[in-house]
Amino acid sequence: MWNEFKQFALRGNVVDLAIGIIIGAAFSKIVDSLVGDIFMPVIGAITGGLDFTNYFTPLSEAVTAPALAEAKNQGAVLAWGSFITAAINFIIIAWILFLLVKGMNRLRRTEDVKTGTADKPAEIPADVKLLTEIRDLMKAGRSL
Description:
Largest sheet: 2 strands, antiparallel
Strand order of the largest sheet: 1-2
Shape: elongated
Number of strands: 2
Structural class: mainly alpha
Distance between the termini: 50 Å
Radius of gyration: 28 Å
């Protein structure tokens, strides 16, 4: 059983996934800082001091604090400003990943052009060719 587990754990896909998760966690911290420290202050300056992170709706009459952290200690709150910030984080991450994949695809196309594999059609497997011939013969009404 140990050998099977070791074989599973050291498979390329599992290691790639683990590396992706670690890089994703680090990337998430960078994006959180980008949003919290750069974008949100700029948005706040443009909108006259608007800071989404402190916007909330109290769900209890006991909540009287003006700041979200204090309000959470007093009772239940609907922290919709935090949700807006998380949504902005998601949009930024999605946009950056889109640009990253787009750039990688452009690099791949450039490499394909350099190596001469850009316009070559994919090789059709032999079994698919055989099935295509059988289909064409059956359409023509001929027997095998």
